[in-house]
Amino acid sequence: MEAIKVQGKNLKHKVLMYTLSTCAWCKRTKKFLSDNDIGYEYIDMDLCKEEDREKIRKDIRDRGGAVAFPTMIVDNKILITGFVADKIKEALEI
């Protein structure tokens, strides 16, 4: 399971997202990050092998989140579920 890297000028925070390739909210979140020139990584869970899907579900649950998409992890400590622009802006300081 390898994350896809998206280049951006703003690399102040490490951003990892778990997404679904067909999810409209996931696409909107990716666009939001790109529009704000944020570098980030993402993994489309639905395109992963089942063993990797279980690792993703476990990672989200271990961080106290619900398995829903998109799930964004900022600096390996802040978890944001769904597209919540205000929370994303606050976490990324934009």
What would you note in describing this structure?
By secondary structure, this protein is of the alpha+beta class. It is 35% helix and 22% strand.
Q: What is this structure's SSE topology?
A:
Elements: E1 4-6, E2 15-19, H1 24-35, E3 40-44, H2 50-62, E4 71-74, E5 78-81, H3 85-92
Parallel strand pairs: 2-3
Antiparallel strand pairs: 1-3, 2-4, 4-5
Brief digest:
The chain is of the alpha+beta class.
Describe the structure using short key phrases:
Glutaredoxin, 94 residues, 5-stranded mixed sheet, alpha+beta
Number of domains: 1
Helix tally equals 3
Which outline best applies?
globular
Largest sheet: 5 strands, mixed
Strand count: 5
- CA distance, first residue to last residue: 30 Å
Structural class: alpha+beta
Percent of residues in β-strands? 15-25%
Instruction: Give, in order, the helices and strands.
Output: EEHEHEEH
Q: Are there runs of 5+ residues with pLDDT below 50, and where?
A: none
**How are the strands ordered across the major sheet?**
1-3-2-4-5
CATH superfamily: Glutaredoxin
If you consult CATH, what is the topology? Glutaredoxin
CATH architecture: 3-Layer(aba) Sandwich
Mean pLDDT across all residues, rounded? 97
- Percent of residues in helices: 25-40%
How big is the Rg?
Answer: 12 Å
The CATH class name reads Alpha Beta
